[in-house]
Write a structure and sequence with these properties.
alpha/beta; four-stranded mixed sheet
Length: 206
């Protein structure tokens, strides 16, 4: 999901003429995933709260191909804003900049998942406020950078909330960079696991 601000003079249009883009259909893993993902697209086509800006097409005549699709919604609680899709669907919600603090709370509370997130801003105060308000809204938090592409084994990459609290791809290096609270949670989980293993071993030995 993405939250965009509404400028005082309206939503600005950007000329992307000449920019090389790739919008080829993407193959998903199987028919079940295809039906689940295209269900979101079909629902958006029928919803009064959503509009498909790009993509929206799909084809299962030979494989399971779905066009990268962009949805804009007037409802910040719209399903594709809250649910994990694991497919080529991006949803946008335009917020009023005068509602900055309520929007931060909205971002923090919209979804039970908290894997990655990013804030783009030129206002240092806004960045500082977002960093505090969204402390636990993402295990991997970026500032003025894309929230994708963590390199396995080379940088911290851990989830939060329903996205998990383990180190994931970042291995032990994650604890050097995650919050103190996250590190404590990881430690508690490992200690409980070790205790469980120890109890199981003692039981089996008897």
């Amino acid at each position: 999901m993405l939250f965009f601000f509404q400028a005082e003079d309206g939503i600005r249009d950007y000329d992307v003429t000449g920019v090389q883009t790739c919008a080829l259909p993407i193959s998903v893993i199987d028919e079940r995933a295809f039906k689940r993902i295209t269900g979101y697209i079909d629902a958006a086509k029928q919803s009064a709260e959503a509009e498909i800006l790009t993509g929206g097409g799909y084809d299962d005549s030979r494989g399971w191909f779905i066009e990268p699709s962009t949805i804009v919604t007037t409802n910040p609680q719209y399903p594709t804003m809250c649910e994990e899709i694991f497919g080529p669907i991006l949803t946008l919600y335009v917020y009023d900049p005068k509602e900055w603090e309520p929007t931060l709370r909205l971002v923090d509370e919209t979804s039970p998942y908290a894997l990655t997130g990013a804030v783009f801003a030129t206002d240092r105060r806004a960045i500082a406020e977002a960093s505090v308000a969204l402390t636990h809204a993402a295990g991997n938090f970026y500032i003025n950078d894309k929230p994708t592409g963590a390199v396995v084994g080379q940088q911290p990459f851990g989830g939060s909330r329903a996205s998990g609290t383990n180190d994931k791809a970042g291995s032990a290096r994650s604890e050097e960079h995650t919050s103190e609270l996250q590190s404590r949670r990881n430690l508690v989980c490992r200690l409980l696991l070790e205790k469980k293993k120890s109890t199981t071993t003692d039981t089996e030995s008897h």
